[in-house]
Amino acid sequence: FPVTIYIDIYGPSSDLDEKSYLILDRIKKNLNLSFRGLLKDDYVVRKMAKYDFSLIPSQTIETGPFSVVESLQAKIPIIGSDVSGINEMVKHDRTGYLIPLSSLEEWKKVFRKINNHPECLSFWKKRIKWNWTMADVGHENLKIYLSLTEKRGH
Known about the structure:
By secondary structure, this protein is of the alpha/beta class. The chain contains six helices and five strands. Strand 1, helix 1 and strand 2 form a beta-alpha-beta unit.
């Protein structure tokens, strides 16, 4: 039988343009979609840990990527775009699922997979071995930036 999927969106709604609001309003009528607003930083990982997976449909490279780090800290699988930043932290079909940019068919495929084989979520979850904090990620990014500026002679 089909699995019911509920989608909760977190973040500032002020980041959305009018077209995005219209699209999401149309989607809300057909899906279990809710806007939850912002969470306090110290509550994000605890809240995320209550979810089955995290959706990160980025359309460009991620330079943090904070949502990925927080999801991995919460030990929840990530279903996200196969873009730099995400694909460096998520192992396809091991700790989540990577989807080629703008591939609607792959998004459908992963939701069918979850619907038909919900055990894939626990398979992915068991393979998440993440023990970095946000500070660790920041330090690693700083090392990269410093090495790049040294190479350029700045």
